[in-house]
């Protein structure tokens, strides 16, 4: 099978991803070895396209690491070496592989590759064209700063083994290469493939295609009309294709129930919609409730220190009057926290929170409070300087918006944060949440709360 036929096979499996498939194929076949970042939101077929291209269509040597399945970097090193052993059918005296650090990993990797290359057989000539390491869900590596060394090694791995075999590392991520650069504090020499969200029309065509698989008794036009109802209802709530697919497929039987009991026919589109409307309303309420419960469990959502400070700053900007900023962050900057603690007013409880109207705040005010809290609370100067980086602040504030913990006011541009953009903190963020977050970063939050 020629290359174009192989790519067409992937196109038929993952529709509307043909541009990304060919871009990936082109990058992997460049003369100069390059690392690649394949990034985009959830359910955009990043993993599927990369897996199909690397596993099924390219005749090359590869290992696949799902970072979420490993508790630490040591485990990732060992998994890479074990996969190489299995791939190349290498027999070692010690079947158990232990890698205490990156130096031992590189030594064993070079040893394996040299040993296999020296065998000089047909499989060697096939595999030595390129070695591909795929790191899926790579974002989770950046939850701990100690993993930066691993990313650095992966970025420059090719330079250590280029005399044996060229190596490309594919990072499958929910974030762009610019985000990765800010996390690891060096510039990864990587190309980028963007997996955009599906458009409304693309989702409509993808979801309608399931009629041929599951509901052959109904015409494509009939199923397409049903999918259009689902999309129009839920597209404003979620763009996640997997969620929309589950909603549409799991509720079709409810939509056609009047037909199955012979009360209506396929031609009664208006009446079918009226019968289905109460079900739609229940689906919307359940969807919102499920996602709200997911978001309200803030403690289970892994937040970086900068996100913690930003959420606390947003809470203070919501409930504190502007005049209190000067009182807390200017006049008292030179005082120690123990002195300020004496002036702490009583804690506001969650019931009082719910009765107060949320006040909008500007990003400029949140940023000023954020910097003041860092200056007063973070004693480690390098950490304080890193957290004050505007690039990190913008990225983490966007993440809070993405998690629906902060809502931009409609007039604000969500894709670009300006100093005067206005926002609201979510009503699911309670005083107790903020108090728990403050405790985790060692912040005397109660000292900054202004009670009316």
From TrEMBL:
Subcellular location: Nucleus
Chief place where the protein resides: nucleus
GO molecular function, one term: DNA replication origin binding
Domain ORC5 lid: 223-273
Pfam families membership: ORC5_C, ORC5_lid
InterPro entries given in the database record: ORC5, ORC5_C, ORC5_lid, P-loop_NTPase
Keywords: DNA replication, Nucleus
Domain Origin recognition complex subunit 5 C-terminal: 306-448
One Gene Ontology biological process: DNA replication initiation
Record-level GO cellular component terms: nuclear origin of replication recognition complex
Name this polypeptide is given: Orc1-like AAA ATPase domain-containing protein
Organism encoding this protein: Blomia tropicalis (Mite)
Lineage, opening ranks: Eukaryota, Metazoa, Ecdysozoa, Arthropoda, Chelicerata
């Amino acid at each position: 099978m020629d290359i174009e036929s192989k790519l067409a096979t992937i196109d038929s499996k993952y529709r509307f991803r043909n541009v990304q498939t060919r871009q990936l194929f082109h990058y992997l076949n460049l003369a100069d070895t390059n690392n690649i970042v394949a990034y985009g939101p959830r359910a955009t077929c990043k993993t599927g396209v990369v897996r199909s291209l690397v596993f099924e269509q390219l005749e090359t040597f590869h290992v696949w690491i799902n970072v979420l399945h490993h508790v630490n970097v040591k485990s990732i090193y060992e998994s890479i070496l074990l996969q190489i052993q299995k791939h190349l059918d290498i027999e070692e005296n010690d079947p158990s592989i232990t890698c205490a650090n990156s130096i031992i990993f590189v030594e064993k990797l070079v040893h394996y590759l040299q040993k296999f290359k020296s065998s000089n057989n047909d499989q060697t000539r096939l595999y030595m064209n390129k070695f591909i390491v795929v790191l899926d869900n790579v974002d989770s590596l950046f939850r701990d700063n100690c993993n930066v060394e691993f990313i650095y090694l992966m970025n420059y791995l090719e330079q250590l083994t280029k005399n044996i075999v060229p190596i490309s590392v594919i990072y499958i991520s929910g974030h762009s290469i610019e985000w990765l650069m800010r996390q690891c504090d060096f510039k990864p020499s990587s190309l980028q493939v963007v997996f955009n969200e599906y458009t409304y029309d693309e989702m409509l065509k993808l979801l309608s295609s399931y009629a041929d698989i599951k509901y052959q008794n109904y015409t494509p036009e009939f199923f397409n009309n049903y999918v259009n109802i689902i999309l129009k209802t839920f597209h404003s709530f979620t763009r996640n294709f997997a969620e929309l697919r589950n909603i549409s497929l799991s509720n079709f039987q409810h939509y056609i129930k009047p037909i199955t009991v012979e009360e209506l026919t396929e031609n009664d589109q208006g009446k079918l919609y009226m019968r289905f409307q109460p079900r739609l309303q229940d689906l919307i309420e359940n969807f919102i409730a499920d996602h709200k419960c997911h978001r309200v469990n803030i403690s289970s959502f892994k937040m970086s220190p900068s996100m913690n400070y930003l959420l606390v700053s947003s809470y203070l900007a919501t409930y504190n009057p502007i005049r209190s900023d000067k009182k807390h962050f200017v006049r008292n900057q030179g005082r120690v926290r123990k002195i300020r603690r004496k002036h702490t007013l009583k804690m506001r409880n969650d019931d009082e929170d719910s009765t107060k109207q949320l006040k909008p705040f500007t990003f400029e005010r949140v940023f000023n409070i954020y910097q003041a809290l860092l200056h007063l609370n973070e004693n480690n100067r390098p950490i304080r300087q890193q957290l004050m980086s505007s690039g990190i602040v913008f990225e983490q504030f966007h993440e809070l918006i993405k998690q629906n913990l902060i809502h931009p006011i409609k007039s604000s541009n969500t894709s670009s944060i300006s100093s005067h953009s206005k926002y609201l903190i979510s009503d699911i963020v309670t005083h107790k949440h903020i108090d728990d977050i403050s405790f985790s970063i060692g912040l005397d939050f109660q000292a900054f709360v202004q009670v009316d």
